Amino acid sequence: MKRAYRRIHLHVFVLLIAVLCIVSSPVAAQDNEAEGNYKKFMAIYGQEKPTKAELQSALGFLAKANDLSPNTYKYVFSLGALNNTLGRFEEASRWLEKAHSLASTEQQKHAIQDEIDYCQVQLAKVRASRWSGSEIFQTAEPSP
């Protein structure tokens, strides 16, 4: 009886392991694909002077990595950093805010907050330059 129980127990254990391998296999494949896209992004972003077109391409790789493995800190933070580099400060701020919520250390949170602050300053400059060119701030010429 003990032998039969052990044999059944072993078969159940092997079956359970097989099911776990089958279930986790697509997840591992997605993680590998996400990491491959992240490496493509890093290859471009790490260049000394990537072109805007190359950075746009890197953004595509990074977006794909994030789609495959959402809420991964390094993908979310990198989306913020890359959008910041591209001058897309509103988009950068959104990604950086999300990265801030995913950060696991105070050092990460502090660095992200510095980036968010920079984006906010750049946005304020853009808005101020728009306002200064608007009709509100233009002086009217005196009428004759």
**Overall residue-averaged pLDDT value:** 80
What structural category arises from helix and sheet content? mainly alpha
Gross morphology: globular
Find the count of extended strands (DSSP E, 2+ residues).
0
Please bin the fraction of helical residues: over 70%
CATH superfamily of the domain at 52-133: Tetratricopeptide repeat domain
* CATH topology-level name of the domain at 52-133: Serine Threonine Protein Phosphatase 5, Tetratricopeptide repeat
Give the class-level CATH name of the domain at 52-133. Answer: Mainly Alpha
Q: Supply the number of helical segments.
A: 5
Proportion of residues in extended strands: under 5%
User: Based on the structure given, which CATH architecture of the domain at 52-133 is correct?
Assistant: Alpha Horseshoe
Q: Please state the CA-atom Rg, rounded to the nearest Å.
A: 25 Å
Amino-to-carboxy terminus distance? 113 Å
- Written as H for each helix and E for each strand, in order along the chain, the element string is HHHHH
Major sheet characteristics: none
- Low-confidence spans: pLDDT under 50, at least 5 residues? 9-26
Features of this protein?
mainly alpha, 144 residues, 80% helix, Serine Threonine Protein Phosphatase 5, Tetratricopeptide repeat, 5 helices, single chain
The gist of it:
The chain has 144 residues and is mainly α.
Give structural notes.
The protein has a domain at 52-133: Tetratricopeptide repeat domain (Serine Threonine Protein Phosphatase 5, Tetratricopeptide repeat). Residues 9-26 have low confidence and may be disordered. The chain starts with a helix and ends in a 12-residue tail after the last helix. It has helices at 2-45, 52-68, 73-85, 89-102, 106-132. By secondary structure, the protein is an all-alpha fold. 80% of the residues lie in helices and 0% in strands. It is globular. It is built from 5 helices and no strands.
